Amino acid sequence: TVGRALDNAPPRVDATGASHGASRVRVAVPSRRSRPRARIASVRRGRTERKARRPIRSLQHNTVVRPRARRSARGDSRRTMATDDHMKVEHIGLPDGATSASLGDYLLENGRVVRDVVLGYTAYGELNASGDNAIVVGHSLTSNSNVTEWWGAMCGPGEQFALNTLEDFVICVNYLGSPYGSSAPTTADPDKADGGCYGADFPTPVSIRDNVRLQKMLLDSLGVKHLKMAIGGSMGSMLALEWAATFPDFVEELCLIAGCGRHTDWAIGIGEAQRFSIMADGKFKGGSYDVNDPPKAGLATSRMMAMLSYRAPASVDQKFERTVTMNSKTGAAAPMAKPSSHVDLNNVVAHANEKAQSLPYFAVESYLQYQGKKFIRRFDANCYIQLTYTLDSHDVARGRGEYRDVLRSLRHRVLVVGITSDVLYPFALQRELAREMPHSELYAIDSPHGHDAFLIEIASLNVAVTRWRNGEPATLGKLRWKAPEEETRASSEDVGELQAAVRELEEDLARAREMEG
Amino acid sequence: TVGRALDNAPPRVDATGASHGASRVRVAVPSRRSRPRARIASVRRGRTERKARRPIRSLQHNTVVRPRARRSARGDSRRTMATDDHMKVEHIGLPDGATSASLGDYLLENGRVVRDVVLGYTAYGELNASGDNAIVVGHSLTSNSNVTEWWGAMCGPGEQFALNTLEDFVICVNYLGSPYGSSAPTTADPDKADGGCYGADFPTPVSIRDNVRLQKMLLDSLGVKHLKMAIGGSMGSMLALEWAATFPDFVEELCLIAGCGRHTDWAIGIGEAQRFSIMADGKFKGGSYDVNDPPKAGLATSRMMAMLSYRAPASVDQKFERTVTMNSKTGAAAPMAKPSSHVDLNNVVAHANEKAQSLPYFAVESYLQYQGKKFIRRFDANCYIQLTYTLDSHDVARGRGEYRDVLRSLRHRVLVVGITSDVLYPFALQRELAREMPHSELYAIDSPHGHDAFLIEIASLNVAVTRWRNGEPATLGKLRWKAPEEETRASSEDVGELQAAVRELEEDLARAREMEG
Description:
homodimer; alpha/beta; Rna Polymerase Sigma Factor, Chain: A; 9-stranded mixed sheet; 17 strands; 32% helix; globular
């Protein structure tokens, strides 16, 4: 039987009548561990441990460990990040070093059941005997569970890492609906006799809260008794916040980076425009597309839009400076002609007029097209749509009362991190979180890069989170931004008031000195 | 013969060998003047006048004066503007009250010739005998030449109007490539024997500079000897700036609103993502689409994206507050189901899964879809693409030297207007213009609405421009923003410094008073 989940209670999941627990966890460990730093979770208790070490099942789409996948660089990845997608994988499916767990049936908030839920996850470090050294990391919209791929400098063995795998059991779980190892439109639908994938039939929408409850079930199975911290960037910060609101006593600390307490209308709109670009691609067919002939052009367009929302305008301008794309293959470098068609995007014909090829082919255009083409190799259109619905569902106060009251009720120690140039989730949203949550510190990444700074300015983010986890202020004195209480815009009012105060004081002082004289 | 145009010299245009001039102007005046305030230009000189009063030719696509077109409201249009497209027309073609002029052949900067160029324009007021009371107004990307439709409170008879039609001869010319009366992909291609439209064969790209040169030819024909001012918002400000750089002695003053001196990479990227959404629509066919079956879905998507770039995130959030779309037709208002298909957008099937209709249908999604559907009735996909290429071409320094040197060389009196919350052309761009142009004042529209504030905050903009035209500062003392010299971000530094100054002065004062005591 499947029951409707109540707030703060994990839903019943086992259609056979057994309660959820370790016995339901089936873990598939890839046969090759090609990532030296990424230790597979070794869970030290009873049946779970035995199960964990025995590969039981790997889903059709994630059987292969790909030794040729590029490795992410450690350290400050500013240079590569500034030019590239933060993700290096070139395929969907469970990433190297990840594990997949089967959790049985799950009743979504929307009232529909996902049968035989599988979650992909990656774990680092070891769970201690008391099960209370775990940290949940939330990944961003299009990332996978492989934390070291996109947050390398944040996670490793040693106290220089904010996520110290010598002490912390760090786990990142792939979202339901994401193509990186969890049940998703790209995985087999148990209701289809022919083994076909969910595709458009994936039960939608999955909420952030659904993901938290599923992750709780997984952690219970692994023997986790308490979370030292829930941390995440962008969509991951929504997960972390929802962890605290759904299981307040299970979570100790929160680190919420470049996100919000409820998805904003502007961001819903950005998502809708992106979804519409996919839906408008004739190949999409309402999601019932041929997986061998997917809506590549629409998905590439959505990625182009997304990339721009992840970057601050000034950052893009400084990067490209109106340069045009050069063709270096032709001996002396010469401007490249604007492509008149895109064969790799389902034969999109950009210009039937051949003369139009002499249009300037700006580097930023070439860059965006490259990013679009890169993205379609590692993502799926239905998954993208589902995950943006998950973002839109996010409202930590849904069913819990007034938004601010809910934030005020969360007594956790919280580090809220915002990026001063973020267009997608502007800094004011993080300032609001910090203002309302009673035990918070607001830390600003004063970066020109916009939203993606949480995947670029990793070295300084790592220092800040490490300091804060050690009980120190995240903000060093020399940094300019120190949790301003008011809108940036209001500070010009402050300037005016203060200037007036200075004038008055100067006059008072002059008068006092006159009298003195 | 057609020669290559040189900077600052109008190109030769007459393939028959005659020099350009009044004799080449053929003006079609619509037979009904349905807009009472919009006076058709009455040009008081020789043959031009006679020609101007005799309708000679009206193109196939602009023969109809549409009496049912909605009128724009005068006064502060904040309420309507905040909810709607700023344009009320629902068709392409020459707007009510506009005139079309034939200018002969024109050699574009790109080396191609547009044959038999037609420009649509709207004029208000009368040209004086000395021909020196003209003002050119530049319209924005998707506007037409009907200034009173989108800037009603700025333009009218009386000194309360920044554009005072009792004194000024105000003229706004539709851009080449725009569907509102000028030669464009939607008009007949003289090279096609069957009378077919240009479509994808329109010679591309047309630059802002091309538009200035064409407009100069038109003004010459009308007898304009000198421009009191070139003014415009967004794309229109690019036109105004290019007017000053191309014909520096012809222009007296400049008013540059919410634009930039060269199109930025982020904005090129936004344009490219929008173009790509059109090109990815299977109906587009490289621009050679059936005009009766155009790429509606792609064009609607591009509009959805554009609308978000025109609005500041906080403005959108405050407008919608995560509300869902209500269906008021069903007696008691109930949430509306998310549409699973869009018949009016070429049968886009959004969700093949019928259950997906229970997804929350956020008001912002409904709003964007409405805007998209509204836009496809009044615009054309090829025109949209051409005009975004025109934007991308914009660089006032192209062929003229270093960007800053070119700005510094412009000795005109300039009012630069920026919007503090503009995402598309951020305030820093206008600050840069004002900093580099030697006789400039920077005026800030301190609006939460983002880029579109230049079409929303018209009443205050009108006051500022009127003051400035009268030789006063545009900025009133009580307004908060007074041309800050530094980045907004730096003002928190200012606050710190000023707070320190206050503390020091307070201490000095205390000491002085102690000594006094």
